[in-house]
């Protein structure tokens, strides 16, 4: 017997409560959200011809009858290399790009091609571009005539004649002579909002559907880098795409279920695009910057405090880039890039998963400088990972003394841990810093192992845990599952919220839990109790309730972690409710159930129900998460 007291309220649900954590891990950006289909398009990987095959070259270069490709390095900042192709045979010379674990093309879809070329002696008459399938059959074709001896951009379109998940791009140079090429690029025409060189539509749609309160970017460990030199530097990710300097991805090999030596960041999805994405999906942007410490799981390299200035300046300049007028240096760049209106940045993160005295010393410098210039910007500070025991061990104690505003906590743990921790935030000081539960996910097996799956067991445990986040909305202001994306053939970490391949994507049970919370966040917390106590696992039930001032609804979330169906039996106090309501049910009898590319066996279903005698009495099936909505 539960009681819903609509008069017992007072705590606001922050609009940022349920958000998105984005990191370029598992091919999340390059090879994923960023819809570029050509890997290593500007020949900037460590091995500059990685991803490119030369089928008619003599491997040992002893007898280059038909021609060869070499890499020329210039002193240009950003785009350092280009490829020189010498064609010796009238039959032409061929390069093949393998894409990101193949190139996904769809029958009848149009693809936009572009290439920079300098036809040195003017002897190359044609460059032919073909999509080829696994058997080498041509499934789409176009060509350009490189008319200029100087660098010039050429564009064309290809239409795919067949759907193929692992096509390749074959480029044939016709004529005899030397040609320089760079920025070989192909994007689907059909991108999110039809932006040229934009983002993959199905993936952004899934983010939009979460109704996220914020978008945190660009990570994760890639913020920090294994060494400081390889940290994420936002200034190198804005401006002309061809000038953005490629960087090795921190997930290049380490923690990979199999090595991923071809993982680099092109930064085609850079900070401008992240801000734009946040705006598109109605989320507050939350950039996280390096605090001058490399990943503490790697080298933990420290920048001396006396040399921290450029790092702090990056933070100040980023705020100017996001919010400054066109008369400021960085506001002008944003304007020139096509967004004269400010992005209205309100939050900034200092460091990712960092802790200890070195972090605190650096955090203090950032805090002072940011708040001196931008007093209203809220700073998210890091803390140690996986705080299992006393959370004060991981930086909280000092951050609390420093009046930090929001502290980012991360935890990857078992489903049992998540259920047991539905009361985790009951003990957090209401007057202390607010909580950003910035990375969490229940693990069915060892983190990042192939056996670690997005099971219903994990998702249900997260749903139960999240009742505790919501019930503690007074102290918990932001939350996000992590990681977000994974390419089925290119992942380094499991489990992940959304899986995709080169053609499709699917939502995991965990995604639907996030979606139900994100779309039913409400505006005000109200009390739901049993015998005067919060519902935190009694009889395997977990519950939380909110009202929504805008839709004039009460929204109750109930999680049943047992193998028996239960009734809610909720008496309502404080306000009269409508005679009927909506019930959304996410359930599965088998805790091991997963979704996949073929079927989503765990997906929400909506129905209606009638209140009886003013009571809300609905079925909460075995192993289910239900959302009950009634108009007030
Ligand atoms: O989400 C994967 C990784 O887990 C993140 O990059 C890091 O912050 C955490 O350790």
Automatic annotation (TrEMBL):
What catalytic reaction does the record list? Hydrolysis of terminal non-reducing alpha-L-arabinofuranoside residues in alpha-L-arabinosides
Domain of life (superkingdom): Bacteria
Molecular functions (GO terms): alpha-L-arabinofuranosidase activity
Organism the protein comes from: Flavobacterium subsaxonicum WB 4.1-42 = DSM 21790
Which residue ranges does the record assign to the Alpha-L-arabinofuranosidase C-terminal domain?
438-624
The family database entries (SUPFAM superfamilies) matched by this protein are listed as: (Trans)glycosidases, Galactose-binding domain-like, Glycosyl hydrolase domain
Name of the protein this chain belongs to = non-reducing end alpha-L-arabinofuranosidase
Tell me its EC number(s), please: 3.2.1.55
In the record, biological process GO terms are: L-arabinose metabolic process
Instruction: Print the keywords alphabetically.
Output: Glycoprotein, Hydrolase, Signal
> What family is this?
Belongs to the glycosyl hydrolase 51 family.
InterPro entries for this protein: Alpha-L-AF_C, ASD1_cat, Galactose-bd-like_sf, GH, Glyco_hydro_b, Glycosyl_Hydrolase_51
């Amino acid at each position: 017997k539960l009681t819903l007291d609509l008069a017992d309220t007072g705590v606001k649900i922050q609009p940022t409560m349920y958000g998105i954590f984005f990191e370029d891990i598992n091919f999340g950006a390059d090879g994923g959200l960023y819809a570029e289909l050509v890997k290593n398009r500007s020949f900037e990987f460590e091995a500059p011809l990685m991803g490119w095959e030369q089928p008619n070259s003599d491997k040992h270069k002893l007898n280059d009858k038909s021609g060869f490709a070499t890499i020329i390095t210039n002193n240009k900042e950003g785009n350092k290399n280009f490829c020189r192709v010498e064609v010796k045979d009238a039959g032409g010379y061929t390069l093949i790009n393998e894409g990101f674990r193949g190139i996904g093309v769809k029958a009848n879809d149009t693809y936009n091609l572009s290439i920079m070329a300098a036809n040195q002696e003017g002897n190359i008459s044609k460059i032919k571009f073909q999509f080829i399938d696994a058997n080498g059959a041509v499934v789409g074709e176009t060509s350009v005539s490189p008319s200029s001896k100087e660098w010039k951009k050429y564009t064309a379109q290809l239409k795919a004649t067949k759907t193929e998940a692992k096509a390749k791009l074959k480029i044939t140079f016709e004529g005899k002579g030397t040609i320089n090429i760079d920025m070989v690029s192909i994007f689907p025409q059909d991108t999110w909002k039809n932006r040229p060189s934009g983002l993959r539509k199905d993936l952004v749609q899934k983010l939009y559907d979460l109704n996220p309160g914020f978008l945190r970017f660009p990570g994760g460990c890639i913020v920090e880098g294994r060494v400081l030199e390889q940290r994420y530097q936002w200034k190198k990710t804005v401006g002309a795409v061809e000038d953005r300097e490629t960087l090795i991805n921190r997930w290049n090999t380490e923690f990979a279920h199999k090595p991923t030596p071809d993982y680099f960041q092109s930064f085609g999805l850079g900070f401008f695009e992240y801000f734009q994405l946040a705006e598109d999906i109605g989320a507050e942007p939350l950039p996280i910057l390096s605090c001058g410490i490399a990943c503490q799981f790697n080298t933990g390299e420290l920048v001396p405090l006396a040399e921290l200035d450029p790092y702090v300046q990056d933070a100040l300049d980023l705020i100017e880039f996001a919010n400054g007028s066109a008369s400021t240096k960085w506001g002008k760049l944003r304007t020139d890039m096509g967004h004269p209106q400010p992005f209205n940045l309100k939050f900034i993160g200092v460091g990712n998963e960092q802790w200890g005295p070195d972090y605190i010393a650096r955090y203090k410098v950032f805090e002072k400088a940011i708040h001196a210039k931008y007093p209203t910007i809220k700073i998210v500070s890091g803390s140690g990972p996986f705080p299992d025991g006393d959370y004060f061990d991981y930086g909280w104690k000092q951050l609390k003394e420093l009046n930090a505003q929001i502290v980012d906590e991360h935890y990857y743990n078992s489903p049992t841990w998540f259920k047991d921790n539905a009361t985790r935030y009951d003990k957090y000081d209401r007057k202390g810093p607010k909580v950003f539960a910035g990375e969490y996910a229940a693990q069915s097996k060892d983190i990042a192992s192939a056996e670690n799956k997005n099971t219903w067991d994990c998702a249900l445990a997260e749903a139960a845990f999240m009742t505790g986040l919501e019930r503690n909305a007074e102290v918990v202001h932001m939350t996000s599952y992590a990681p977000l994306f994974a390419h089925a053939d290119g992942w380094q970490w499991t489990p992940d919220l959304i899986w995709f391949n080169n053609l499709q994507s699917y939502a995991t049970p965990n995604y639907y839990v996030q979606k139900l919370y994100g779309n039913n966040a409400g505006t005000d917390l109200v009390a739901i109790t049993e015998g005067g106590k919060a519902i935190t696992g009694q009889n395997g039930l977990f519950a939380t309730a909110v009202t929504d001032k805008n839709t004039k609804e009460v929204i109750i979330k109930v999680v049943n972690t047992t193998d028996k169906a239960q009734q809610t039996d909720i008496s309502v106090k404080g306000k009269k409710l409508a005679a009927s309501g909506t019930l959304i049910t996410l359930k599965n009898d088998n805790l091991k159930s997963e979704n996949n590319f073929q079927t989503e066996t765990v997906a929400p279903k909506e129905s209606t129900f009638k209140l009886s005698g003013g009571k809300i009495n609905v079925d909460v099936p075995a192993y289910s998460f239900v959302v009950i909505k009634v108009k007030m």
